[in-house]
Predict the structure.
Amino acid sequence: MTDTPHDNATEPEHTPESAGATRRSVIATLGGATLGAAALGLTAARATAATDRSTAARPAAGLAAACVLTPEQTEGPYYLNLETVRKNITEGKAGVPLTLRVTVVDIATCFPLPNTAVDIWHCDALGVYSGYVAGGSTPDTTFLRGVQLTDAGGVAEFTTVYPGWYVGRALHIHVKTHVGGTVSNGTYHGGHVSHTGQLYFPETYNTKVAALTPYRNNSATRTLNARDGIYRNGGSSTLLTITQVGSDLGKGVTGTVVLGIDPAATP
């Protein structure tokens, strides 16, 4: 029988730092600058240009609404510092296709953070992590692990599969964000970790997925979000929004989430 991993559900959580400037404060600052410019007697053309620049720089309403610090959560015992930059991390693993879109926002400005490394890892449909197959260290396996850099809109996208589960944990994906590094030879190097957390799935979808192959072959008792000690400490803030691709769930889903981080933090 294949041993299944266990995260430490009793590990203390980090206390989130207070959030930075809100969208309202950013707009207020910009508005004050515009009024000041008018008072200095700038021409109408220059004032219009300044307004246009301010409007273009404002964060989208959805990002501003999510401009709070995402709670830190335990890294867990199965992180591997592979830092392999790749979009598709499935390596042939069976499961419901999942397109994961993670948007990273700077909590101090409410603006998206480009060129931030989003590092994810999760178990397969039967609750097994690469690197720890059959309960032992197997560094030659790398499935369901990878890094993507955020684009100009702060979005990193992965092609993976809906994760399975193991004893004591709800369905989840581990995530880190790295800032200040570079990519060479397909690997992310340097920088520092600015956030460590976990992403979760709505129970309505978890139940439906559990009835499909290969998930129904997972004999471990599935833990609900509400009964997961780690989820209860801030997990609701990283509950994925799931959209089904078509009428057949087996064809795949898209999951989206916004992470609010302090890029200068080293938690």
User: Anything to note?
Assistant: The radius of gyration is 21 Å. Residues 23-39 form the longest helix (17 residues).
